[in-house]
Amino acid sequence: MDGSQTSGAPAPRDLPDAPTPRLIRRLATAVVVFRRQVIGLSLLVVTLLSLGLLDWKVTGDARIFFGENNPELQALERLEATYAKLNAVVFVIAPENGDIFSEDGLPAVLELTRRGWLLPHAVRVDSLSEYRVIEGDEDSIAVRPLFEPDESLTPARRRRRMYRPPRRHR
Length: 170
Known about the structure:
By secondary structure, this protein is mainly α. The protein has helices at residues 21-33, 35-50, 71-82, 105-117, 155-162; strands at residues 132-137, 140-145. Strand 1 and strand 2 form a beta hairpin. The longest helix is centred in the N-terminal third of the chain and has 16 residues, at 35-50. It is elongated. It starts with 20 loop residues before the first helix and ends in an 8-residue tail after the last helix. The mean pLDDT is 78.
């Protein structure tokens, strides 16, 4: 490679023509001289472009991306007609030891529940940690969480609390 060539950069004569200072000065002068026309034209363009906003709407429905004849969309609509429309995300936790009430299982549920509330547009999170226990004793009713995040129960006590049969009053 000889000293006259650079490392792949185009020669100055190969660059596109940049606006000259004279052209920029002429354009600026025209804008100042015809300022009312420029303002009017700008307002007209903005108004015409804004007319399209009348039909603009934001939707979370992914169906807008599929045509009416799309086989997957038709299958989804048949499924929803048979059962029900459900817009939900389901996370399933299956601990290796098979016990969700273990020392590792319940903290994972608590963390996943906390993060579930942070999802965009989340309005409800169903979880063991969100489950409420209702207990009645004669005239009083107590509603409490099934598990408190900082509660230190053994897995066996957590399991018993979850599957405790209701008390019958005489």
